[in-house]
Amino acid sequence: MHKYLKKTLVISVFILTAIALYENFLLVPEYTGLRTGVSDYIISSGLSDTGSLNLITAVLYDYRAFDSLGESTVIFGAVSGIVLILSRKMLPVSSRGLSFIVKRTFGLVTPFIALFSLYVITHGHLSPGGGFQGGVILAVISIIFSIVYGSAFDYRRYSPQVKTAMETMGAFTFLGLGVVGILMEGFFLKNLGFLTARTGTLISAGSIPYVNFGVGIKVGAGLAIIFYSMIQKTFKEDF
Amino acid sequence: MMTATVVLENLLLIFLVLCAVMSVRFEEELISIIFLSTFSIVLTALYLLHRAADVALAEAVIGAGLSTAIFMSAISQIRHGDSD
Amino acid sequence: MRNNFIFIILFMLGLYALIMKTNLIKNVIGLNIMEASIFFWVIAFSDVGGEVAIHKMGEEFSKFNDPVPQALTLTGIVIGASTAALLLTLIIELNQFTDTIDRDEIEGLNN
Amino acid sequence: MALLWQQFLASFSFESYFPLLAEVGVILTLITALAAWNYIKEYKFWYYILTLIYLISTVVVILTTDWFFFLFAWEMVTLTTTFLLAWSSWKLVKQYFVIQFTGSSILLFAALAANALGYTEIAAIDSVLLQFVLIIGMATKSGIFIFHFWLPPIHSEAPSPVSAILSGWVVKLGYIFLLKIIPIESGNTMLYLLGIAMVVYGGWQAVRSADLKIMLAYSTVSQLGFIALAIGTGGELAFLGAVLFIIAHGFAKTTLFITSGILQREYGSRVVYDFKGAIFKRPLTSLAVIISFLSLAGLVFSAGYNAKYLISSAQLPGLLTKVVFFGFALISAIYSLRILYWIFIVDEDYSNFADKLKKALNSYQIYSTDILAILFGTLGVLIVAFWPEMPGDMLEYLVDYDFNIIAGVRDSIIYILLAVYLIHNNAGFKVKVRDHLSLERYLRSALDFIFSMSRKNVKFDTDKIFETVFYNTIFNTSKKIHDFFYQDLTIQLLWIPVFLSILLLWQQIYSYF
Amino acid sequence: MMETRIILLIIVPLGTAFIIPFIDLINAKLRRFFVLLGISIQIFNLTSIVVQYFDQIRDGSLFLQYHLGGWQPPFGINLVMDNLSFLFIAIVTLSLLFIIIYSIGYVGHHEGKFYVLYFIIIAASNGAMLTGDLFNMYVFIELLTIASGALIAFQRSHPGSEAAIKYLFYNIIAGSLIFFGVLLTYFNLGTLTMADVANNFAALESGIQLFITAIFLTALLIKMGVFPFLFWLPKSYDSSPAPVTAVLSGVLSKIYLYLFIRLIWTVIGFETIVALNLNILLIDIALFSSFLGHVFALQANNIKRLLGYSSIGHIGMIFAVIMLNTEAGFYGGILHIIAHMFMKAGLFVACGYLLQYTVSNHYRDFKGVGLRDKPVFIAFIILLLSMIGMPPLLGFASKWFILMAFLEAQSYFGAFIVIFGSLTAVIYYLRYIAKGFEEVRLSEDDLKMEVFNQPLLSVLYREKIVTFITYAYTAVIIIFGFGFRFLNIPLRMSIESIMNVERYIELVLGG
């Protein structure tokens, strides 16, 4: 089809879709007036049920913990897919690090980033944040290593084998807690009652902090593997 | 008179759309990715305005942090054989 | 109402980048913008002017925003990021063979 | 599984003449199996497995009244006969399978339409339209007039025992199915007309063919015409005539095809003119040929005569039908007697007939099983000739039915005289020997005819004709449709917003139309 | 009643998927042991469910639930297994079992990663069929997309990565549409559980109903590969390895069909579809897609792409029969789903074996493939015959019931499409069967090319496994061909569980 005919066709289709969407959006009433079934229950009895102050982590890691299990498997699947596609036979040459000043400053900064990510992971149920966000920050450390100090440095510090081990460890803690839920209290991924202490303290929300920790490790290691396999300078394979 | 937050929100929304348009228009991938990261940072600010702290943190870390890193590494791998 | 406009504009922009642009990286960016617009709309729509859904230690219960759509968007963002990562690796892989990421030159995509 | 088995057995119906027809089918298949013993050399085991499956499915086809098992068995018949053809050439298998499959798809459609309209059992259907659809459905499978184009090429090319099965019985299953479908009192006028057309066309082509197998194939078409004619007229007598005709023609045609196999191996060619001295070389085979051809011609004291007499007596009285029927009988007489004329009469010296016969009789070691098969065949023909109500009087209606032999003798003498006169002064309808019939040649002649009108002389090489013409046209059209939809990724992805907006605005769109 | 074995159906494959990279670190030899362990536990689980609830399955009152995390349905996630999902899980697990044994014999390099992704697909497919929660369904659909996207690019060849990119483009858009749809239902109805949504979906105002149904329908049609969006399907079947195509065509398309039935009949309710008068549109789209699938198959010059197009044709036909919403329609549709799953998976498995030595799977390279290994080619022909619908095989029974359904519903266009489909199928299959039997005179460099072409089956015993699985599929088709009444009870019961949605809602919410 001729270039301009195609362009006009596309533009007209977009306008048509915009109108269609606009027509239907008019019908959706404002949210305040709508029936709020599940959210009323969660807001009112979220704290007492799960013991976690942050209701979003309560939803994520207790009410709908199965979604988060599915979610972490999505990352697990993406990681193994990416490593499968980008695995190279040859040992890649290390990417050049940045200048000396950057290396020194990051030498100082990295422990604080690690501390911050651990804070975000463990305080999932008290302050905003949780397993996923903390895990990503954890991955940022490995990304910094491979950018600033060169991927060989990152290879030496946390070799992909260590990362896969960490990832599977995280996955197993999550799955293990679920299975413990079956053994102890009859339901998969049940929030284990015996672990809850006074609300507001670090280990207050039953199994949520441990699940957070497992997911954090898993997501951190997984995304580190993704970035490591994408960053390495690659040559045309020979085999 | 519209309160300060509403004005801020409208401003941010305009900035949001601007970032998206710029990111799509530019031919050079590097520029569009940088605009994409600013797009997600503005989005974090908007989420904060809408009282969604967790989502804002996630968007900041994943949208601005991780996606940009992955896009950058992808561009560095791409070998432009002939075009530009 | 204003949020619906923004959603439609951003969604159309993402779709435009995905469909019209011939550069594969641009398509993935378009995809990202499309998903981000959906997440933005969800959060903007579920904002009923309440507080962040976190209980303060001291004070008693006040009006919260609905935590459920926020939790779902969180999951959505992570899924969106991992799919984008997978797509980018595939583009890198394709680039190994065709040395270009222009959609018109890779005619394999058309049939 | 048990449920299925009981349902399968319950669907059998054993009343009126259908068990008899099933028995005749079984006998005919055994005869052909016997004849195939030393005709088929390699993979003999697989041949008999296929014949066994064919045997079971023919019995099921004839006896069952449930649509599903009927179609299940009939398609099994097609499947087994397709693989039986593999002993001649794969090309044949392909053509036969494609044609039979289209036929069975139409039949499937017709059967399910009948089932949906309330006829859950295979019983008399009174809506004429449904009868018409069912006739079209079974047309390709059992050679109704327009759809019989595949019958001569495939039946003449197939190995002789297989073509015996095909012509002898497989083709008749459609008519047995029609016996159940067409209500006895009303009959079906379209079938009547088609029958007439088949008789005339088959007879004319049979007379014009020099190759024995091609002649036999065309004679099958004309004999099937008679059966269609009988079923078309309707009435108790006509239906019985059709049944008798099916049995008589089954026996006769099977023996004839087996004998053609023997003669082909004996003389190394299939053309009728070089079967010289057949009576002395193969006396018993020539005896079988004579008896079967007489039955085919419908002369008196033969099986064919009884059936034809039943059918003609069932016609409505009136001079026109008498004359027309006389013409039909004459046609069948001509093409059968012509073969006898060429084999046994033309420049034969029967000087010392007796001792030559004695010498020939004692040299029978080679084809023992084939001879046995033919003897059974001729025995069958003779039984039908002298006991029209069949041993154990299954057709009890015919027990005391007088076939007024005197009128029959008079007619046959007239036929013979006329046939001899016509054959004699037309020099036996001697026709140039055409090479083997094949569907490629049909398509080629059809296309030459079309292109000759358009003055664009296009050269076809015949054996690759199906690939070049038939498939390329399909390939190009589907290629064009494919390219229309598959332009490039932008258009393909564009379908998503288009479809989304159509669905979203469906309320307005629907109210608009 | 509560049943922990349902959740085990999902956790066990997930656990094996997590173990395998860990085992790879220790020593790769154990990997196959864990693979077999995982799949055998899965089979054991399913058989124990069948044994325990056999009488409930027979009289159709099977209804197992599982509340995750101990929360009652409207708040937490609940898993539901009624007759329909039980039937689908049984056939999906059986087919996956065959394919995993086949892939043990077939996959050469990167075996560890293949099994991880494969077990994730098993877990996600079981999850998608069991879940009674909309967002959980979305997560499992995304899981399926990513795992199958990565598997399509398993061979890391040029066409492979193209196919994966195109596949992912389409499916990620569909995924984000489903996310949008789920969130819309949440905002309007307040709950995410399917039963609760089904309960008061009718109360919604018709404009919003149309909005939600439109979003869900577009997403599902993209996933199923129906007319406007069938462009990604043939390419992804063409360039991915045989076990992956077997999974894609045999299993994934069936899971999306199940989700379609679950969404349209249980969640949205067919009366609303009729009220929005969408059903006529959908039947026409489905039939046109089936027509297009068969027409495109005529011009396919590549055996796997041909099977892809014919798969589009058959899925379109099933989709149309189900949309008739009659008892006979469901019977024919689900029977054809079962038949099509085994036939298509068997065909791709056989293709994988037949084409392992050819340079490409183009039409001219298919020359003489049949002569090289006759028994597998005979199995291939039997499966093709069953695709056409020849009697002794299962294809005939399902074609018969589909035609009956179409004719009883007076839609003669549908019956015509079915007949047209099987006629065109004869033409394009016969072309390949003839090509398979053509003599091929192997020249010097052909032989060298074959040796150099690293056949994946290095060890002889793996060749045995591969041929064994092809015969297993053909045996299933022939056995069920004769005994298709054997499937009668589960089919009747699953139709009954589709039809009355009230029982589903009452049991989930009331229980």
Explain what this protein looks like in three dimensions.
Chain D: Keywords: Cell membrane, Membrane, Oxidoreductase, Transmembrane, Transmembrane helix. Chain D: Its main location: membrane. Helices cover 70% and strands 0% of the residues of chain A. Chain A has 239 residues and is mainly alpha-helical. Chain A has one domain. With 111 residues, chain C is mostly helical. Chain C has one domain (2-47, 65-105): Helix Hairpins. Chain C has helices at residues 2-20, 24-46, 67-98. In chain C, helix 2 (24-46) runs antiparallel to helix 3 (67-98). Chain E contains 23 helices and 2 strands. In chain E, helix 15 (327-354) runs antiparallel to helix 18. Chain E is an all-alpha fold. The chains are: A mainly alpha (239), B mainly alpha (84), C mainly alpha (111), D mainly alpha (513), E mainly alpha (511). Chains in contact: A-B, A-C, A-D, A-E, B-C, C-D, C-E, D-E.
Key features of this structure:
heteropentamer, C: 111 residues, mainly alpha, Helix Hairpins, 3 helices, 0% strand, D: 513 residues, 2 domains, 23 helices, 72% helix, globular
A few lines on this structure:
The complex is a heteropentamer of chains A (239), B (84), C (111), D (513) and E (511). Chain B has 84 residues and is an all-alpha fold.
Distance between the termini of chain D: 51 Å
Order of helices and strands of chain B: HHH
Count of beta strands of chain B: 0
Number of domains of chain B: 1
Largest two-chain interface:
A-E, 52 and 60 residues
Element order of chain D: H for helix, E for strand: HHHHHHHHHHHHHHHHHHHHHHH
Distance from N terminus to C terminus of chain B (CA atoms, Å) equals 51 Å
Q: What kind of sheet is the major sheet of chain B?
A: none
Protein topology:
The complex is a heteropentamer of chains A (239), B (84), C (111), D (513) and E (511).
Chain A: H1 3-27, H2 38-50, H3 55-63, H4 65-86, H5 100-122, H6 131-148, H7 151-157, H8 160-185, H9 208-231
Chain C: H1 2-20, H2 24-46, H3 67-98
Chain E: H1 4-26, H2 30-52, H3 54-58, E1 63-67, E2 78-82, H4 83-106, H5 111-130, H6 134-152, H7 158-189, H8 194-199, H9 206-224, H10 232-238, H11 242-268, H12 270-275, H13 279-298, H14 303-323, H15 327-354, H16 369-372, H17 374-388, H18 394-408, H19 412-437, H20 444-452, H21 460-482, H22 488-499, H23 501-510
Antiparallel strand pairs in E: 1-2
